[in-house]
Amino acid sequence: MPVPLAPYPTPPAPVPFTPPNGAQSQLVCSGCRNLLMYPLGATSVCCAVCNAVTTVPPPGTEMAQLLCGGCHTLLMYIRGATSVQCSCCHTINLALEANQVAHVNCGNCRMLLMYQYGARSVKCAVCNYVTSIGAAPSTADQKFSS
Hints:
The chain has 146 residues and is an all-beta fold.
């Protein structure tokens, strides 16, 4: 007479390691650009989505974020860097501190643009229109109603 086999017991779900105080930090995955959470003290993080391994910056390294001007991907970089290359579209973005930049709407598509103080013009990454800074719009750009 055959003996019925019981199903194997389900192993318990793995519990992620967290330090005793539960402190965690975050960084952007170097592969898929998802935000990764990791316990303090980790030296690298493996992304659950794309399996890319991202190196954790050394403790005490101050990080900053910006949106890529080419594809609008969130980029993280070490504070103090002057430029950041996007790993998705390869656009080189200026990494300026908040007190060094100003904003203007594109003269063509009205997209909000960021530029360095002192610049005379800024080129829109969306429509490639060049907007003059600090100059009144020309009469060709003005719309008159009758």
